[in-house]
Amino acid sequence: MAITVLIPTALRQYAGGSGEISAEGATVGEVLDAVMREHGELRKHLYADADKLRNFVNVYINDDDIRHLERLATKVKEGDTVTIVPSIAGGSVGSVGMVMGEANTELPSLTNQEISRYSRHLILPEVGMEGQRKLKAARVLMIGTGGLGAPLGMYLAAAGVGHLGIVDFDVVEESNLQRQIVHGTKDIGRRKVDSARERLADINPLINIETHETQLTSDNALELFREHDIIVDGTDNFPTRYLVNDACVLTGKPNVYGSIFRFEGQASVFWAQKGACYRCLYPEPPPPGLVPSCAEGGVLGVLPGIIGAIQANETVKLILGDEAGSEPLINRLLLFDAWRMRFREMKLRKDAACPICGDHAPIKELIDYQEFCGLKSPAANQSEGDMMQEITATELKQRLDKGDDIQIIDVREPHEHDIAHLENAKLIPLAQVVNRMDEIDASRDTVVHCKGGSRSAKAIEALKSAGFTGNLSNLKGGIGAWSNDVDPSVPKY
Ligand code: ZN
Questions:
Q1: Is residue 490 in some structural domain?
Q2: Exposure winner among 23, 181, 316, 381, fewest CB in 10 A?
Q3: Cα 230 to averaged position of ligand 1 atoms, centre (Å)
Q4: How much distance in Å is there from the Cα of 280 to the middle of ligand 1?
Q5: DSSP type of residue 187
Q6: Are both 325 and 201 inside the same structural domain?
Q7: Strands 406-410 vs 425-427: parallel, antiparallel or unpaired
């Protein structure tokens, strides 16, 4: 009986470069045996024991997943196609905890100094010497050292996670200190990776900290992820969040997820081999501008402390493994409302049609996440840019000084107006701007401003589509630019 066996790209090098092999056999096991008689190298990549497929290797007959059947004993018939789908695309599996519990013999031993430092862990039977050695062996990659990364890094360092990788390319700003407690006032202006490394090394000099001062991109993510066991997502934007998810799925790594906005937080563990991924939950990002960033919408400073600590908790549990009955946040989405002090939990399910972790996922490699999130459509942005008139803070000041008749519309929120405002500016929040269009005199030159220039651009677009005919200019850089370039007495926020 001739059966077609499809070999995944990652394994083709062990099959003489061939993606399709014809083999004989009555069951999946016999067919694979026939293939491996030809290509002996394949065996160790497919099989854990003599007759057991590795748990990250999935096999399909035609379109059917046989994971839940007897796998190797499943019968095949003439003309069938057997497809091998390893859920790790070329990545190595880590050596600790839930990631792979059997490698205990390779766990590092603890020094007397470590035994004394971690004594409160060691006397917990659920952790013990073995658990602490797993922590020491673990390699965790943190994406970002901001609000979530701060408590996360500090607790993981304190817990004795042996290798912490940190990715960040930002510089510490004063407005970060309201929540990013890994950095201090003396660190303003320093690179976050340096500031975080110093603080974490002070918390625990016995661990190894590796910093990567770079933006996580589709070019560097897979390589970085493969060198770690667990990825912890502390990012604050959708392109990076989807990049982290997809790179985790492609390398088979668990993604310890957290996100925050205003008073609300979410946490989960996305691990495609064991359950839902982020795309199973949110296949596509919201259109740009619909969900404001923390810089636009604000965030309660304590919130990332709580969500980041939950992420640290889940990371430690993944490393320790679930043999002692811990329940990881896999297939569970935790929702937290800090304002009403409420936790809720949603059940998640792996989506068979998920574009990255589904049964026949079309996405096989990392994509352009800026474009995916609608943040990069060069042609469209170009033409909008051409149409939108802009004025710099310095130009506006010059025109006002000359006595030009200019009305200034401030489209921020009233509480922002309370923090800082321009003289004679009329406050009409963005959401009301179309309804209150008649309060804007179309016969006068009009400058629209917000905090940084993006909401005012939206206001101008909205006014134009609503038929406003006056001359509108966007204040470039918003009131922040006015404070920087014209009047430093206006506070920046
Ligand atoms: Zn998925």
A1: no
A2: 381
A3: 17
A4: 4
A5: G
A6: yes
A7: parallel
